[in-house]
Amino acid sequence: MCSIDCCSNPRGKAGEKLDPSNASNRPIIPTPNGELYPYEVIQEIADFIVKGSNMRPKIGIICGSGLGSLADIIQDAKVFEYEKIPNFPVSTVEGHAGKLVVGNLEGAVVMAMQGRFHFYEGYPLAKCSMPVRVMKLCGVEYLFATNAAGGINPKYSVGDIMLMHDHVNMLGFAGNSPLQGPNDPRFGPRFPALVNSYNKELINKALEIGKQMGIEANMHVGVYSCLGGPTYETIAELKALRMMGVDAVGMSTVHEVITARHCDMKVFAFSLITNKCATEYSDKKDDEANHDEVMAVAKNRQKACCELVARLIRQIQASS
Ligand SMILES: O=P(O)(O)O[C@H]1O[C@H](CO)[C@@H](O)[C@H]1O
Ligand code: HPA
Fold it and tell me: Its GO CC terms (predicted)?
């Protein structure tokens, strides 16, 4: 996608004069995030999904690692494999099937991503969160983003659910944003505010549902932080995150939420705590996070996560 004309540093040995008319002499400069997926391309993808499913979804769900079963409870489903959707990236991570499922859940038309895109897969943030814009142009008003995360808050246990009420955007601290580059006002403003990103009404409803399900002791409201991955964090990093007020850490979600808020979607997000993060030095192998454990815990807790999502959608439907 990078235009050949955007290259400014000729390759070659220092001082060597290269013929700039030869394309291979020009380096590749990445296209800015904001230019990767123009509005028209997103519209084409959205049209493909709406026409292909003959449905207009109201709620978008992003399934976290090992939480793909959130899409399995959708009825009358039309399933699109990512490879078959024009201009869509492919999933490369275990536990992310790479399917888009459109159908009915608790009386609402929903579209669920069984597989999200992560920065560490080599995708720029705008590409990771591009499907959120597709959801918007399909008609989605609510984004439900879920993830598997490491618990940093010492009160959290493996299997707990943390409803996100805020985030610390570590990739943003490093100057990276899905909104970087030219802004298209058809999606949203140049400088979106993020103070009320996580819908309070939905958090309160979810807490109430947690009580009804009898899992209130395993439910928290907290702060998530996204790092670039794919490494899990060092003890020093985890200590620093805790000092910043972070309760759970992962490698996703924040850029999706930023993109959703930019285009004024209502956001509900939660982390399933799949491992406890060590914040003290020790020789215990148990302290090391690993993806197999993440997936196993997610599988064990998928029933509760599905029930929470289904009941919340039922309430949204009842009050609309
Ligand atoms: O955030 P999700 O996609 O749930 O996955 C989490 O689990 C993986 C690490 O085990 C990372 O991709 C991390 O972000
Ligand atoms: O401990 C973790 N760190 C980062 N990402 C994660 N995803 C699941 N667990 C973790």
Answer: cytoplasm
Is the residue at 272 inside a domain? Answer: yes
Beta bridge partners of 273: 149
DSSP per-residue letters across 131-148 = HHHHHHHHT--EEEEEEE
Helix spans in 37-116 (H): 39-53, 69-72
Ligand 1 centroid from CA 94, angstroms: 10
Answer yes or no: is the C-beta of 147 below 6 A from any ligand 1 atom.
yes
Tell me the ipTM for this assembly: 0.99
Distance CA 8, CA 46 (A): 35
pLDDT, position 14: 65
- According to the model, what pLDDT value does residue 15 have? 66
Ranges of the chain with pLDDT below 70 = 1-15, 20, 23, 27-28, 285
Dihedral angle over CA of 241, 244, 246, 249, nearest 10: -30
Q: What is the total count of domains within the chain? A: 1
Q: What share of the chain is helix, strand, coil (3-state, %, to 5)?
A: 35, 20, 40
Angstrom distances, CA of residue 53 to CA of 7, 100, 103, 171, 282? 41, 11, 8, 35, 52
pLDDT value of residue 3: 43
Q: Say if 289 falls within a structural domain.
A: yes
At 258, the amino acid letter reads I
Nearest atom in ligand 2 to 277's CA: 1
Counting Cα atoms < 13 Å in the Cβ hemisphere of 135 gives 33
What's the 10 CA to ligand 1 centre distance in angstroms?
Answer: 38
pTM: 0.91
10 falls within a domain: no
Range of the domain at 207: 39-318
Cα 42 from Cα 48, distance rounded (Å): 10
Binding-site residue positions: 65, 96, 116-118, 148, 233, 252, 275
Q: Per-residue pLDDT tens for 10-52?
A: 455 666 777 767 767 776 677 777 788 999 999 999 999 999 9
CATH number of the domain residue 208 falls in = 3.40.50.1580
